[in-house]
Amino acid sequence: MRRIIFFDLDGTLTDAGPGIKACINYALDKMKLEKLGPESDWVVGPSLWGTFNKLGVPEEDLNYAVDLYRERYDVKGYIENSVYTGIPEQLSELKSMGYMLGVATSKPTASAISILEYFQLSRYFSYQFGSNLDGSLSDKSSLLQHALSTTGSQPSDALMIGDRRYDIIGAKSNLIKSIGVSYGYGSINELRAAGADCLIKETRELAIVVNKLLPI
Q1: Which CATH number do you get for residue 106?
Q2: Which residue in the list 8, 10, 15, 163 is annotated as catalytic?
């Protein structure tokens, strides 16, 4: 029986906040709009189109805002990032236990692959699922449906791990169990309200909780 674990990227495997915020501010500055305030962790996780819309970018200018964001992100934003302490060890342990690992992120697939390669995490993952450049598949429900279909996995043999409610809601809509990690950018209250099957506060808990929730 093959068990597959899907990991969110930003806020779950890596602390991507600094790069994401800097690139959003770059786009906002270019568009002569007000930059992010101090309470801006909410921008890490959702799709860029929805984020820019909430920040006051008109519907007709959303693609332009995303293009500006990528103008900086593709050059240096993606490396203004750091791997959470303990993640490589946990991924290695999960693989040695027999789990297949995949990434399921709302960021473009090409960007996800670049990050995983730069931070030497790609060796742990058999699959990398991300959105398309036009924003399609950025919704976690659609993305995980696509991931299940591509891998030929049953929902009962899969698990989603993420730090935001979007990860949990996406998992539930596909009948996948989920783990919410509060060391990222989502609060325990957010993850609990979304219906996470289990919550963890530290990376060192990952392999233990995965084995309890979805034993090999």
Answers
A1: 3.40.50.1000
A2: 8
